[in-house]
Each structure stands twice: as structure tokens, then as C-alpha cells.
Amino acid sequence: MSTSSSSPDSLTLYGQSFDSRLLLGTSRYPSPAVLEAAVERARPAMVTASLRRQGSNAAETGSHFWELLRSLNVPVLPNTAGCMSIQEAVTTAQMAREVFDTPWIKLELIGDDYTLQPDTLNLVEAASILINDGFYVLPYTTYDLVLCQRLVDVGCQAVMPWAAPIGTGRGPVNPYAMQMLRSRLNVPLIVDAGLGLPSHACQVMEWGFDAVLLNTAVALSQDPVAMAGAFADAVDAGHTAWRAGAMQAQDAAQASTPVLGMPFWHNN
């Protein structure tokens, strides 16, 4: 896996450092060429790929997609998308480890096939099984504080809460819960799902989140390559703003122009 040496601006996950704080999905693009150009423009830390959706057999999907993934020169984060039971998610993860030759896994365990909300009752157990099997687990979850803490307790060194349901593009629908989560957990938090605009990505990065994962917002835009670049720039800007420390909001207007030395005129 291609990583950089650690620095204050690096994203560090499971002891490995990455130059980018953007992760990018690889589905629903207009063409493989557009996907390739979008990845080249954004230069993400990782690209996600679902074994279930894409298939590991070249006869099923064509060899071009797999050749493209290898040619991107970006680490691949396999995804257990669509799994609706613990055993299904674990088996898919183990298959993905063999196919992609990586211990990294984005753990999706879906409890509702309409909203694609994570199965909050079984996610922790699935994560624990995979952690004990040597995986570097990045669990997709809601912004529920207790659930996220339990994932950390079983060994997840990073958590991926949604901002809104997958593919909605609504942005952070519960800023209070997300900011509370950020203030309480001391592991990297990657916002996964629900972001639709670069401003959404910038906002969550300004709150102190460590990275964002995007797919639909880029792939279904009118110009995915330009949008990938816009999101990459927004993520960088938001992280820089968080590190710089924003001013505190004030209830009343505060003069921004100094008055020392300015002439004063008085009516006679």
C-alpha cells in the first residue's frame, strides 16, 4: 500500500499514513475513463470497491474494471456492501482479502434495505470477528455515540459515521449529534455517506472530522472530474480551517477596523 510518512497533515489509519483525506468510491460513473480521470484529479487516499457488486470473476464484469483498479496506483478499500447478516459480511470480507490481497475492509452490515441504514444490533459483533481475524476494519455506521464507542471498544481504530442516508446528498442532517461524536471519540472519524456538495465536506472537516468518503456526489454530477477536484479542494480547505482554529461566534457586531489614530470630526 502506497502511503506517506506521518505529518500533521497526514491521515493516519491503523498506523499507516496517507497524503489525502478523501476516499472515493468507484461505482456509477458514466464510463471507466471518467472514473480514471476523477481519481487522477482527486488523488484520494483509497478507492472503494465492492466484491458483491463488481464480482471477482472477469467473465461477470469484464476484465477492464479490474485492470483499471490496478492501474490507478491508489490503495483499494474492499467493501462488504449489500451484506445483511454477520456471516455474509465476514465471508465477503474474507473473499475480498484474497481477491485484493489486503487486510483493509470497509464493513457494511445493512439492517434496512430502504434507507441502507447499518444493522446497529449486529455491527459490533461483525466488527469484532473481523478485527480478531486480522482485518483493518473501517465500519460504516450511524452517528450514534454509544454504537461508535462500542466499535472502538472492540478494536476499530477508526469509525465511519454517515451524515445522512447513502446517496441522498442532503449533507449533515444532525449537526449536533455529529459534533458531539467528534468531541467524545479520540479515533479518526471518516464521514461516509450523505454528502452532496463540496461545502458539506468542508463543513464536517471544519468540525474536526478526519476524512470523507464520497461516491454518488461525484459519480452522478454533470462533470465528475471537476466535482472530484472540487471535493478534494474542499476537504483540504476544511481541514486547514480546523487546524487554524476558527474565531468564536459573537452575539453582537464587533468592529473590525481599528480606530486608533483616526481623525474625529465634531459638530459645532
How would you sum up this structure, described in words?
It is a single chain. Helix 1 runs parallel beside helix 11 and helix 5 runs parallel beside helix 6 (123-132). The longest helix is centred in the last third of the chain and has 21 residues, at 224-244. Strand 3 (22-25), helix 1 and strand 4 form a beta-alpha-beta unit. Mean pLDDT is 88; it is low at 1-5 and 55-60. The chain has helices spanning 32-42, 51-54, 58-61, 63-71, 86-100, 123-132, 145-153, 175-184, 198-206, 216-219, 224-244; strands spanning 11-13, 16-18, 22-25, 46-50, 76-79, 104-107, 136-141, 160-161, 190-192, 211-214. The chain is globular. The chain is α/β, with parallel strands linked by helices and 268 residues long. The chain contains eleven helices and ten strands. The protein has a five-stranded parallel beta sheet. It has a three-stranded parallel beta sheet with strand order 6-7-8. Strands 1-2 form a two-stranded antiparallel ribbon.
**Rounded to an integer, what's the Rg over CA atoms?**
21 Å
Structural class: alpha/beta
* Unreliable segments of 5+ consecutive residues: 1-5, 55-60
Order of helices and strands: EEEHEHHHEHEHEHEHEHEHH
Total number of helices? 11
Biggest sheet: strand arrangement:
5-4-3-10-9
Mean pLDDT: 88
Largest sheet: 5 strands, parallel
Helix content range of the residues, please?
25-40%
Please tell me what the overall shape is.
globular
Query: How many beta-strand runs?
Result: 10
